[in-house]
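Priority: medium. Attachment 1 of 2:
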């Protein structure tokens, strides 16, 4: 039975998007993008309104693999009661080292209606989660938008987190402006040739650079409340890869100089060979302690100082 949250935590100022004029128009625009799909920069051109599928193998309805309070995310998202994650199935990237390959490549999950998606959002709020965290949302961003009115009508007022791979369309980000409070993109590579080789995308860094700058323009640096819980802003994930494949130096200098040196960064050390990585040396090994320490040194030397866990 859902529990009342009244009085359990400080009430948040109602987000600007509650009753947002133009939400319906944004949904219609987003669904228009599905007709010859350009919901992400791959621009496959398939008609997802008719169930056709492009690179992400996703049709009209959202597919989720799981949902629930999650305590493995970054500290400002987790707090005491967890981040309310909704994991979407499939992905608009094709990373050969994906750690969730059963979901992203294998298609583990089930199709749900927009009404069910709205109900999940409200359920996670009633569970006491600090935010709603949409994991791998890019290829279902239209459907997420379309589920919001019902969730809002049922009282949804948590900060919304867009937890993505960084390969995003500026057009879609424009539709999300004022709706999503927190953007949490990966910055996977600083060299698009590496992105082509390992994520099957020709222009990763060029696209991600512009997307991250746009996200920062919309929400700014990460802001937390008095409990250290994120309320609004940009949070970057950068997974350190073997042999410097992630391009940490260029990536961190880009963040410090072209986004903000106050950017909150999770420099991740947990790389391990998954999915097809064992066939792609040097991705077939974990990183060494020295490689991570070097990445940390580079990050700090670039002027970034808000590092998760440090
Ligand atoms: S969302 Fe999927 S179908 Fe649409 S352009 Fe991206 S990869 Fe292609």
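Attachment 2 of 2:
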């Amino acid at each position: 039975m859902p529990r009342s949250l009244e009085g359990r935590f400080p009430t948040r100022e109602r987000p600007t998007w509650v009753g947002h004029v133009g939400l319906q128009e944004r949904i219609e625009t987003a669904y228009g993008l599905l007709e010859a799909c350009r919901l992400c920069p791959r621009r496959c051109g398939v008609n997802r309104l008719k169930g056709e599928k492009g690179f992400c193998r996703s049709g009209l309805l959202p597919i989720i693999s799981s949902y629930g309070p999650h305590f493995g995310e970054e500290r400002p998202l987790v707090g005491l009661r967890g981040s309310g994650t909704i994991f979407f199935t499939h992905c608009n990237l094709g990373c050969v080292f994906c750690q969730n390959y059963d979901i992203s490549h294998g298609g583990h999950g089930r199709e749900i209606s927009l009404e069910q998606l709205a109900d999940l959002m409200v359920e996670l709020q009633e569970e006491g989660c600090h935010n709603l965290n949409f994991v791998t949302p890019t290829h279902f961003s239209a459907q997420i938008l379309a589920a919001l009115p019902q969730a809002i009508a049922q009282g949804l007022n948590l900060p919304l987190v867009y937890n993505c791979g960084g390969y995003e369309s500026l057009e879609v980000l424009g539709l999300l402006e004022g709706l999503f409070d927190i953007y949490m993109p990966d910055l996977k590579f600083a060299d698009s040739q590496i992105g082509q080789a390992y994520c099957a995308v020709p222009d990763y860094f060029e696209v991600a650079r512009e997307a991250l700058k746009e996200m920062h323009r919309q929400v700014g640096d990460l802001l937390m409340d008095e409990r250290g819980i994120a309320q609004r802003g940009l949070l970057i994930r950068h997974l350190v890869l073997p042999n410097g494949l992630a391009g940490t130096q260029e990536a961190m200098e880009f963040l410090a100089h072209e986004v903000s040196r106050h950017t909150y960064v999770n420099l991740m050390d947990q790389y391990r060979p998954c999915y097809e990585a064992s066939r792609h040396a040097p991705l077939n090994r974990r990183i060494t302690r020295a490689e991570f320490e070097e990445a940390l040194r580079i990050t700090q030397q670039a002027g970034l100082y808000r590092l998760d866990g440090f």
